[in-house]
Backbone:
């Protein structure tokens, strides 16, 4: 099937586990999208279906956007590890946004 693929500048060199390949989701523009393919050294690929994304669009790996949430506990379960390992391995290159 035809689909749009977004390339996101985050990979296993940034601490994003390879074990999330073809399993994890991200949030873009308040919608869930699936990872496709393997987590690469510096990139992940996201299946956008018939949607589009643009350079500079926010991609949420862990966190929430309105009513959608990706918990670190969910990611760690998929990666077969503990939440602390996920957050401690994430590179400082990945922006963090803290909201109260």
Residues:
């Amino acid at each position: 099937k035809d689909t749009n693929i977004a390339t996101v500048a985050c990979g296993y060199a940034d601490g994003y586990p390879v074990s999330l390949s073809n399993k994890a989701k991200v949030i873009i523009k308040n919608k869930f999208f699936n990872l496709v393919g393997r987590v690469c050294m510096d990139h992940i690929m996201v299946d956008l279906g018939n949607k589009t994304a643009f350079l500079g669009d926010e991609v949420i790996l862990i966190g929430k956007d309105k009513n959608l949430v990706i918990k670190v506990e969910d990611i760690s379960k998929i990666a077969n590890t503990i939440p602390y390992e996920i957050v401690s391995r994430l590179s400082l290159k990945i922006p963090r946004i803290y909201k109260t």
